[in-house]
Each structure stands twice: as structure tokens, then as C-alpha cells.
Specification:
Number of helices: 3
Strand content: over 45%
Strand order of the largest sheet: 1-3-4-6-7-10-11-13-14-15
Distance between the termini: 36 Å
């Protein structure tokens, strides 16, 4: 009940922020406060980190739909829905003098992944999807900068290796790299839309280590992740801007449920460099 209430409260906060941002953007007049375009370039924005997943994932599904379990390799596919409650970036160089505070980025994304599994110990995959996000921050002078992003393509590659298994305990290393291209969307200053649409590109990498313990149908896990994200912002009168994530290290925990055949479901929570939860369903062919 406590977890349910917590997720409900977080969902209400996110919904209220998104509603406020959209109403401000839609109800304002064009062509005002153009000077704040430069601040959009310099302010701390958002990052992106994909869910890490269960370190035991390569070996959870022992049987599939079509490929015999005696084969040394098989194909698997997954679909992930992720909800990001908050992500922070840092202002660099001269932008630190602008008095930026209360930066917030929230939203959700959906990613599909195709995986090549080897000997139930190694996964290599490619992923693709899209997302919808809202960002907002305040700065000195009571200026509120906000915007939305609902276009673009999330893409990436991933690899997961089980280093060792001792009885029902698994230790694994996971790596992700990728980005988000063709990000377009409006921005506003104190609810007054800025002229034109911004265009952004993002690149990220992350490495994690985790331990999992199988207990009948359940496989809970916990681990740590290092993430670095870089963001490029252009189509601005002041030129091109680059930003990077504020925090690098974070923790994550989750649990998978499966009979070990064909399908498993995974739920995960992340903290530290960002706060988010994800739900993943994975199938073995």
C-alpha cells in the first residue's frame, strides 16, 4: 500500500506539471521575450537513461516458442515502458551566473528491443522507440522556462554478460550506448512561446553491475550504474549549445517474475542520477 500511494503521488505531481506547462504554452502570444532564447541554450536540461534490467536476464528463459533449448543461440524480444519522474543536468561556464534553480524534466518513453542470446550467458541487442517529455526550470528574476518534446527516435545498443553464477546467485555486467535524434518541440518563457521550434540531439552511455538471487518464480536484483549523457541544442539565434548530466552514479533495483519458459515480466526502479521506474516484458522465440 505504501508503494502504491507513493507512485500515485508521483504520478499526480507529474500530471500537474505537464498540464501547467501545456496550458502556459498554448495560452500565450507569439513573438515576445525573444531574449530568453539564449537562456534556453545555457540552462540545465534533461538526460536520458534506459532501464538496466535483470542481471539474470540471459538465463531466466530456459525454453522458447520455436528455437530448441539445446541450441547454443536464440532470439528474444522485449518491450519497455519507462516513466521518468526527474532528471537533472548542470549549467556550465558562464551559465552558472544566471541563477538557475528548480530544473525539472519528466515524462515517459517506450522502447522495443531485439536480442541475440548466446549460451544463456550473453545478450546483444538493438533498441528503438520514442517518448514524450516536459521540462521546466526557474532562474533569478522569477523567469520560468518550460517546453515539451514529443518527436524524435530513441535508438541504442546493449550488451549483458553473466560473469558468474553460484547456485541461484548471479553477477553480471551491462552496457548501453545510444541516443535520441530529431527532437523538436516548443519552448516558452513565463508562459510566452519563443519563436520557432528547438532542435536537439542526445548521446549517452552507461555501464552497470548487479547481483540477482533466484527464489522460485521471483528473481530480485540490485546494482549500481554509471551514466553520462550529452545534449546538443541548435536552431537558436545564439548558435549551438552542449550540456552534460549533473550526476553520474546511481542505484537500481527490481524483480522479474517467470516460470522460466517463453516469457518473463520485470519491474525496475532507479535512483541517484535520476528517479524513474520501468516495466518490461520479454519473450524467447
Amino acid at each position: 500500500m505504501l508503494c502504491q500511494r507513493k507512485f500515485y503521488e508521483l504520478g499526480c505531481v507529474k500530471a500537474r506539471i505537464i498540464k501547467e506547462g501545456f496550458s502556459r504554452i498554448c495560452s500565450s502570444k507569439n513573438g515576445q521575450n525573444r531574449e530568453y532564447r539564449f537562456l534556453w541554450l545555457l540552462c540545465p536540461l534533461f538526460g536520458y537513461a534506459v532501464p538496466i534490467g535483470n542481471p539474470s536476464a540471459p538465463s531466466i528463459l530456459e525454453q522458447g516458442c520455436f528455437i530448441p533449448d539445446t541450441s547454443w543461440a536464440n532470439l528474444q524480444a522485449s518491450y519497455t515502458a519507462d516513466w521518468l519522474f526527474q532528471e537533472r543536468f548542470i549549467a556550465r561556464c558562464s551559465s552558472q551566473e544566471l541563477g538557475l534553480r528548480k530544473a525539472l524534466f519528466s515524462g515517459s518513453f517506450q522502447v522495443g528491443t531485439l536480442l541475440w542470446n548466446v549460451l544463456e550467458r550473453f545478450d546483444l541487442g538493438i533498441e528503438m522507440g520514442s517518448g514524450q517529455f516536459f521540462w521546466r526550470w526557474e532562474q533569478s528574476g522569477k523567469v520560468a522556462i518550460s517546453g515539451t518534446v514529443s518527436e524524435g527516435m530513441v535508438w541504442g545498443g546493449r550488451a549483458k554478460l553473466i560473469v558468474f553464477e553460484i547456485r541461484d546467485t548471479t553477477f553480471a555486467i551491462d552496457g548501453h550506448a545510444g541516443g535520441w535524434d530529431w527532437m523538436n518541440g516548443p519552448a516558452a518563457s513565463n508562459g510566452i512561446p519563443l519563436l520557432g521550434e528547438t532542435h536537439s540531439e542526445m548521446r549517452y552511455w552507461q555501464i552497470s553491475v548487479a547481483l540477482a538471487q533466484k527464489m522460485a518464480l521471483f528473481t530480485p536484483y540490485i546494482g549500481f550504474v554509471a551514466n553520462r549523457t550529452r545534449l546538443k541544442i541548435d536552431r537558436l539565434e545564439s548558435g549551438v549549445g552542449w550540456l552534460r548530466s549533473l550526476h553520474t552514479i546511481g542505484a537500481f533495483l527490481g524483480c522479474s517474475v517467470s516460470y522460466g519458459r517463453i516469457f518473463f515480466l520485470n519491474v525496475e526502479s532507479r535512483g541517484g542520477f535520476e528517479q524513474g521506474v520501468s516495466v518490461t516484458g520479454q519473450i524467447r522465440f
